[in-house]
Design goal:
Blueprint lengths: L16 H11 L28 H10 L5 H8 L4 H17 L2 H13 L7 H18 L3 H7 L4 H10 L1 H4 L5 H9 L6 H17 L1 H11 L5 H7 L5 H8 L13
């Protein structure tokens, strides 16, 4: 079983033809969109990040041309200071994982875990966690995701809950609830949002199960998590859960 290890990342600065070609294509799209969806002020979650302002559809077009990128070339983008270059690397990695045979899939998962410290913004997590770690854990076991969910690192915890989306899409929701229960007292807004999002997706599969979870926990859930979770409910049910005051359990029957 693969586990998380603190492996020193080596930087390969060799500028190959592929790297030069990719960077030239990226340059064609610099600052095509303002950075609106990331909090980059001092003390914010994305304070560390730098952005080129490239739209995701254009990154995907570039990724399609270079999905066979070799690991030494890939690592240059995977460890880039620019968010969009890391996102490009992850889009390529997802494509490689989906096309790979089993032994290569295991290598890709190991590579992902070795570079997990570079998967450090919500767009990077949300584009890669479920099609790589979710897919891998679905075939093997859930121990890796449970390990990540117990981390004290924001992005590893978000990876764990978003990875359950792969299970949800296949009709399996219990892992989502298991991890969501761990996050009820979490202090991070980005964990509240991701958890509420996955609860909402789980509710699309089985609304009765979501109701059961909320009846038990709505009174002490972070408000943002609750609002995300109930977004697709009818107005009456949303209202009932929103009226639950902290510390007071919902009176609606779970049956």
């Amino acid at each position: 079983m693969l586990t998380i290890h603190d492996i020193k990342i080596t930087w390969d600065r060799k500028m190959t033809t592929n790297i030069e070609l990719i960077r030239k294509q990226l340059e064609n799209h610099y600052r095509e969109t303002p950075i609106l969806f990331f909090k980059t002020n001092k003390g914010d979650y994305a304070e560390h990040d730098q952005f080129l302002g490239i739209k995701v559809p254009n990154l995907r077009k570039i990724a399609k041309q270079f999905y066979l990128l070799e690991v030494d070339e890939h690592r240059i983008f995977m460890t880039s200071k620019y968010n969009e270059e890391r996102l490009l690397a992850l889009i390529i990695l997802v494509d490689q994982y989906q096309k790979a045979k089993w032994e290569q899939k295991k290598k890709i998962v190991h590579y992902y875990l070795r570079h997990i410290d570079w998967i450090n913004n919500w767009n990077l997590v949300d584009s890669s966690a479920h099609p790589i770690l979710g897919a891998y854990s679905y075939i093997t076991d859930t121990s890796l995701l449970m390990e990540l969910s117990s981390s004290n690192k924001l992005w590893e915890k978000r990876i764990a809950i978003v990875a359950t989306w792969y299970f949800i899409k296949r009709g399996q929701v219990e892992l989502t609830y298991q991890i969501a229960e761990q996050y009820l007292n979490d202090q991070e807004d980005l964990i509240h949002k991701a958890t509420g999002w996955m609860l909402r997706e789980a509710g699309k599969v089985n609304m009765h199960r979501l109701n059961q979870f909320l009846i038990k926990h709505a009174h002490h859930m972070p408000r943002t998590m609750l609002r995300y979770a109930i977004e697709k409910m009818n107005e009456e049910d949303r209202g009932q859960f929103l009226r639950v005051k902290p510390g007071k359990k919902h009176k609606k029957s779970a049956n």
